[in-house]
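for the writeup, i need someone to sanity check this before i put it in the appendix. the sequnce is what the collaborator sent (i think, or maybe the updated version? ugh). structure was predicted straight from it, no edits. if anything looks off just tell me and ill rerun, i have time this weekend
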Amino acid sequence: MSGRTGRVRAGRLRWRRATKLDKVRWLAVYSTDLIHLAALTGLAQLYVRWEQGGLAALPAIAVGVLLVVLVVLAARTFRRAVRGGSRPTAVLWVSGVLALALSLCWVIWAPVLWLGMLLPFARRRTVVAAAVASVVGFSAYLTLFAGGVLWAIVLLMTAITAFVLGCLGANLWLWRLAKEAHEGQEARALLAVSEERLRFARDLNDLLGQSLSGISAEAARAEELLDSDPEASAARMYEVRDAARQALREVRATVQSYRRLDLDEVLAGVRAVLEAAGVRCAVDADTAALGPETRTLLATVVREGATNVLKHSKAERCTITIKDGVLEMSNDGVSGPVGEHAPDGLGGLSRRVSAAGGTLRAAPTGEGAYVLRAAVPA
């Protein structure tokens, strides 16, 4: 019982740590495995034929083994398609031969399984043409060897083929759609970072471009006057010195303005980044009465908290509340110990908050939740 309990706990832990994309992939694969396992109902058909004397024991066993092999190959082929593997040409050829042999033994699931294996690696019109050819070929086989077309069996095979191919195609389409959406979310987050870097580069170019050009021009004129008029050259160099100091003051002011974060903008940006990463984020912030230093400090805490949510959890929900200078940021998706680097990232921030007369605490609350709380004098 303890071993079974341990496996259950390990399974739950693996599920909690898995990303949303992993969960969608597992859903697509395991639901498709159920379709493949349904093909093993053909074993019951073989048993009935053996009981009725229509098939000897050894051939029935051989056909059953071949059907199991075909089901295993079909399941592995679909998993390969979901993982983005290359087309398994040899496996498809071998499975096609197996499916043909089994269909001649009245195992109508066999061609359907082979068509399902072909579906992820061929064009839809090719699969449709192969499905039509399978139904027509089966009808011809019935006409030649069963004395006429058994329309009930033909209709049953047609319905099974359409249903199975539709389910497999839907699973594959949903998986690819989920993968594209996940890649789009990552691209959106990277784009937001790139846009911020471009904005900083433009500001820096506008700030220093003209100042450095002026300094360079004044230094060149001072060099030209150095031999003919040393006093004028010295005056030019004083102007270069003053221009350099002015540029330095402007750079420091710009850097200080970047450090002085706008809390409302940070909240909006963090919410956009978390939503892009698939985390539902709810923000309830009353920031009107907060001073500039408090706003900057809380904005820094929010950014660090969002970084920890993305790096150290598999969160699906995040809540950010600010009231009377108290920030509380909670998220789910925490399994086991909190990420090893999370305390290091919050250590320096905790000292900054303490220096401002506030407190910062971050700890898991149980059941996969984590709360970051910062109280700063408003």
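Residues 338-343 have pLDDT under 50 and may be disordered. The beta strands are 280-285, 317-323, 326-331, 359-366, 369-375.
thx in advance!!
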